[in-house]
Amino acid sequence: MEIKYKINDPITAAQFIEVLNTSTLGQRRPLEDKACMEGMVSNSSLTVSAWDGGRIVGIARSLTDFNFACYLSDLAVSVTHQKSGIGKKLLSITQDQLGPHCTLILLAAPAANTYYERMGLANNPRCWVLDRTSSIR
Predict the structure, then answer these.
(1) Maximum distance among all alpha carbons in the chain?
(2) For a tag on the chain, would you pick the N or C end, based on fewer CB atoms within 10 A?
(3) 27 or 13: which carries more pLDDT confidence?
(4) What's the predicted TM-score (pTM) here?
(5) Please, are residues 67 and 34 in contact by the beta-carbon 8 Å criterion?
(6) Which residues contact 114 (CB under 8 A, 6 or more apart)?
(7) What is the side-by-side strand order in the sheet with 3-7?
(8) How confident is the model over 87-123, as pLDDT tens digits?
(9) Smallest Cα–Cα separation from 82: which of 2, 4, 15, 23?
(10) What gap in Å lies between CA 71 and CA 108, rounded to an integer?
(11) Distance separating alpha carbons of residues 95 and 104, to the nearest angstrom
């Protein structure tokens, strides 16, 4: 298997949904809301995708200013291609696109905590979240 990596190569919402569906991340994304999924893809600052032939098998999707902060919103690898270094490579290519002072930030599913720790990311307890169903008081 030869995996090709592409930086900011256009992907469709359908391709994005496909890779999320074939990974464990699809369970936590609004796959049925096509407009939302299209917005997620089209408004990303940085995407790094992994391809096995003509099929997308991995993606790192980020929002960033490239200089100070990069929020990695999605890191997904198809279950059939997990444990082959694709996720690590997607993270590495993402980091390579960022400036020397840019911090990579992400929210991890509980099951992924040990993965990110192995990749060298540090856990930071200072994250705050305002769910869309909540209001500013």
Answers:
(1) 52
(2) C
(3) 13
(4) 0.93
(5) no
(6) none
(7) 3-7, 46-52, 55-64, 69-77, 103-106
(8) 999 999 999 999 999 999 999 888 888 999 999 999 9
(9) 23
(10) 12
(11) 7
